[in-house]
Structures are given as structure tokens and as C-alpha cells.
Amino acid sequence: MHGSKPQPVIVSGFSSQQLSEEIASALGSRVLAVVRKQFNDKEIQTTIMENVRAQEVIVIASAGGDPNKQEKEARLLMRAANRSGAKKVTLVLPYMWYGRSDDSWDERNAPALVDTVESLRSHCDSVVIADPHNAILTREKFLDTGSKVKDCTIVQFAYSAAIQLKSMIESGILGKDSLLFSHADAGSTKRIGVSFRACLYTVLGMTRNPNEDDWAQGLKDREKRTGNSKIKGFSTPVEGKDVVIFEDLISSGGTACDLAELLKKMGARSAILFATTGLFTTDPRKGQSPASSVERIDRSQLDAVFIADTYNHSLTDPQIHEAIERSPIVHVIKTASYLAAILRALHVEVAEDTGLEVNSISALARGIHPDQLVEDQKIASPIPLKPGNPLLTSKAGSGVRA
């Protein structure tokens, strides 16, 4: 039985307003009013307009748009909640700024991720991060000795992906026996952990052993100075397979497009990508429009791309948002219900008759939480493929692009 204490209230950063409203709805909570100002010198000011004294506050802040501005805003919102007497502050990072700046390439370069974490961890009691680029380092730094943070939850969306794949199999779009799970390169192996694999196998009814790391992967070289990479091969035969690739993000989409082209040349039926964050970056210096990366994916051999709604371009990059809406390839999966389930587990009041797994984040990650096992669960829902998607033109993924 869930505790009866009030649900935490939610304070939203600028670029996470839609996601915050949807999480609040799923939690049975509400988003507090915030007044934002930007002065002529570009400095910002934020004010929480409602009482938070003795309440648990969830601050939801993403790096959409200007990451420097959004990071500052998140700190100001947390400071305001703490100064106003909040009982507990939980920071939710749907996409964390500077998450990819996790390495120091020479002695004169400092990893911005470490600086970012150190600037945040003194303002919150717990943190929830959606699929960070370097989960191990991110968690370690948030939980360092002296940090105020006592709990750091890393969220991956294996369950959402599994629900989507299950729907596509049941509708005959994909073949269960032809599925080949993969990741882009050796560096992404650490993301595809036991819980991630166990969730996919459980939801899809597969008898595979999640403790065996036997997924296929792309073979690529990366130039350390620029970060650019090139696909040179694949670790296993893919002929006749529906290849499903899992990544943390799409930047410009170049690697994903190259990998799909290689897979099709090797005889794959289809190439499907699940990536948590869709940045879709472009370079105006090369004459690229804001929508260029999405349009590149539309022209590629990728049959379907699924991204989470954790990075929303609608307020910060409307042209990218509109390109995603138009794209027959790129689909946006709703994550609010799943994130709300995690936040509910973190804040549930445990009583003597509380079920063993009710507040278990691990159970949610593996797809075995009590709320995931009921027939009408709403923690994740599939979305239909858009009209014009190539997978719809030939059931079970012919891999032929119209």
C-alpha cells in the first residue's frame, strides 16, 4: 500500500515545462508558478511564487537551449526552494548540461562535467539523471564525500523501448526471432547493463540470460582531438536481421546514419535506433540549417529513430522541433509516466504493509515492479509509426527504403 502523505510539488526549469506538467499529472501533483526575468545585461532572476515550506520539492531542469543559462537557473531554483524552507529538494536532470565533457584530454583542459556536478550537489538532497553519457563518473561525483546528495538515481529507458518493440512485434512490423540488439561501439557497453538487458528480455518474453554481454556492436575509430568517429565494421553477421541500436544521444546523427548504411550493405532487414536524447546539432558555418540533422536522418538508411521527450526543442529551437514533427523517421516517446513512477518510488512513505518492491528503483529498471505487472499499467505506452515510415510499407522490416 502506498503512503498517504502529500505528493512532492514540482518546480520547472524553462526548457522542461511540458515534461514537468506531464510528470505532475502522472504523480497527482502540481507545478508551482515561477517568474523568470532576463535583464538587459543578460543576467537572469527566478522567483518561486508559491509556498514550499516543509514540503518536498522536485526541481526539473534540462539543458535544452542555452546550457549555461539553464544550469544557472537550476541552481537559483534549488537555492530558492532551500531558502524558503523546503523539507527536501530532488533535482531531476532530463538532459544534463556538460555530460559529455567527462574527460581531460590534456593538462590544460578541465572536465566540465566535474565542475557542473560540484556546482549542483550542494543544493539538493537527491538527484535523478536520465541516461547520462558517463553514468559511473556522474554518480561518483554527486555522491562524493562532503556532498549533500545522499541518493543518485540513474534512469535508462529500457522499459519504454521494450514496450515500443513489443507493440511493433505484435503488429507484425518486426519479427521477434529476427531481432538483433546492438550498441554503437565498445564505449557504450557500460550503458547496456544487466538491468537494461533483463528488462528487454522480460517484457519481450525472451529466455536469454541478461548476465551474458553478447550484444553486437559497431566497430569505429574516433579521433580524440575532434571527437569525430567513423564506422568501419560490425561485430557480427546481420543478414536478415532487424537490428536495434541503443544509444544515449544523437548529436548530428552522422554516426547513426553511417552505421545504418553499413548494416543495410551487410544485408540487415532494418536498422532501428533508440536514443534517449535527440540534440540534432548543426553547424551554421557550413551553411547548415537548424533542421539539417533531422533531414539527414530522413534521407538515411535508418528505418526508425525513437528519442525521449526529455530534450524538448519546442521552446528553444522551434525549427528543429518542427522538423522532428514532420519527419517520418524520428519518433518521440513520452517518458513522464516512467519518470513519475521513479519519483513516486523515491518519495513513497514505507509502512509495515508496503509491498517489498513498491519503492524499488531496481524493480522498475528491470520491468518487474508491481505497477508494471498489472494489465492496465500506464508507466509506458507505445506510439504508432508515422505515415510514410518505411517499416509500414513492408511488414517484418524488408529494409527497403522507398
Describe it for me?
The protein folds into two domains: 9-155 and 337-365, Rossmann fold (3-Layer(aba) Sandwich), CATH 3.40.50; 158-334 and 381-393, 3-Layer(aba) Sandwich (Rossmann fold). Helices cover 30% and strands 20% of the residues. It is built from twelve helices and 14 strands. The termini are far apart. The relative contact order is 0.13. Mean pLDDT is 90; it is low at 396-402.
What is the helical fraction, as a range of percent?
25-40%
Mean pLDDT: 90
User: How would you describe the oligomerization state of the chains in this entry?
Assistant: single chain
DSSP E strands, number: 14
Count of alpha and pi helical runs: 12
Q: How is the largest sheet built, in terms of strand order? A: 10-9-8-11-12-13-14
Beta strand %: 15-25%
Please give the CATH class of the largest domain: Alpha Beta
Reported CATH architecture of the largest domain: 3-Layer(aba) Sandwich
Order of helices and strands: EHEEEHEHEHEHEHEEEHEHEHEHHH
- Count structural domains: 2
Alpha-carbon distance between the termini?
52 Å
Low-pLDDT runs: 396-402
- Rg over C-alpha atoms, rounded to the nearest angstrom: 21 Å
* Overall 3D shape: globular
Structural class: alpha/beta
Keyphrases for this structure?
14 strands, alpha/beta, 30% helix, Rossmann fold, 402 residues, seven-stranded mixed β-sheet, 20% strand, single chain, disordered C terminus
